[in-house]
Amino acid sequence: RPRTIQWVTGLSRHCVLHSVYGAVHPPRGRPAYLVDRVFRATLREQAELAAVMVSYRALAAEGFPPARSLIAAYRQYRSFTAEPSVDFDRAFYLACQLDGIWACRRASVALARCRQCGSQHVVPLGAQDGRECALCRSLARPEPRRKAPGSPPRMHGPESDLAGDEFWAVTEHI
Predict the structure, then answer these.
(1) Contact 156, 165 (CB under 8 A)
(2) How many CA atoms, within 13 angstroms, populate the side-chain half-sphere of residue 67?
(3) What does the alpha-carbon distance between residue 8 and residue 2 come to, in Å, rounded to a whole number?
(4) What is the per-residue pLDDT across 87-141, written as a single tens digit (0 to 9) for each?
(5) pLDDT value for 140
(6) For residue 174, what pLDDT is reported?
């Protein structure tokens, strides 16, 4: 989005529109700038966002400017992800929230180590140390019941007396 490019590069809107987009219309609408979306995202998205932020932080800690760190971290992420679920706008906003820069006046998230696996993940700023990452939390939940191989398809809808899980609960003992 033009606004994201402006924040990262410091270029004017006019320059961004003409240099980057030319005759093509830039994306319209508001980007997803809600930090809560990070914690409601899928497991894959949370893991991918954490990977981008860990790379970003490592580069910034080595002395690279934030803009270059973010761009390099996002490029690295794109190089190992065949179908990325995180776009640059989302990574940008999370970096803003992480360091309180560009579009954010103060930090509202942090990186923390998972107490189970030791990986770094994104947590709300001031969250209790030692929280588990999304992957470890998902592994701690009981697995949903899976249908047996070769079973008939699940029956749904008004045509069945027992729909979905009720049917399998009754038939699993047969």
Answers:
(1) no
(2) 10
(3) 10
(4) 898 999 999 999 999 888 999 999 999 989 999 999 999 886 668 888 888 887 7
(5) 79
(6) 35
CA distances from 41 to 29, 38, 51, 52, 138 (A): 20, 5, 14, 15, 13
pTM, two decimal places = 0.69
The angle, 0 to 180 degrees and rounded to 10, between the axes of the packed helices 66-80 and 43-61 is: 140
Q: Which of 151, 153, 120 is nearest to 135 (CA)?
A: 120
> 71 with 8: CB under 8 angstroms?
yes
Longest Cα pair distance anywhere in the chain, in angstroms? 70
Q: Are the CB atoms for 104 and 92 separated by under 8 Å?
A: no
- Comparing 82 with 154, which gets the higher pLDDT? 82
Of the two residues 48 and 17, the one the predictor is more confident about is 48
Residue ranges of E strands in the chain: 109-113, 120-124
Assigned token pair, 48:
């991918």
Residues paired with 122 in a beta bridge:
111
Looking at this protein, which amino acid is placed at residue 58?
A: A
C-alpha span between 165 and 155 (Å, rounded):
9
